[in-house]
Amino acid sequence: MGSWVQLITSVGVQQNHPGWTVAGQFQEKKRFTEEVIEYFQKKVSPVHLKILLTSDEAWKRFVRVAELPR
């Protein structure tokens, strides 16, 4: 799970950055989403992914451990 947390915290766009644009933010979010999908495809078994997607408790724990905003 540590790699997942690093992935989440390593990708981000700061709106106060001099080069920030709405289009740039969209591209950054798109790239982040693609990286997350690729990570899950390579690192998470289909069985575990199904549990994560179908169990409220598993999802809540995942959000808590990954320190995602609720």
Overview of the molecule:
The chain is an all-alpha fold and 70 residues long. The model has no long low-confidence stretch (mean pLDDT 79). It has 4 helices and no strands. The longest helix has 22 residues. The chain has a domain of 26 residues.
Proportion of residues in helical segments: over 70%
User: How many E strands?
Assistant: 0
Distance N to C terminus:
18 Å
Q: What does the average pLDDT come to?
A: 79
What string gives the helices and strands in order? HHHH
- Poorly predicted ranges: none
Number of helical segments?
4
The whole-angstrom Rg is 14 Å
Class based on secondary structure composition and strand pairing: mainly alpha
Instruction: Give the amount of beta strand, in percent.
Output: under 5%
- Main sheet characteristics: none
Protein name: Apolipoprotein L4
Question: Secondary structure elements and their pairing?
Answer:
Elements: H1 2-10, H2 22-43, H3 46-54, H4 56-65
Descriptive labels:
mainly alpha; 70 residues; single chain; 0% strand; 71% helix
Provide a quick synopsis of the model.
This is Apolipoprotein L4. With 70 residues, the chain is mainly alpha-helical.
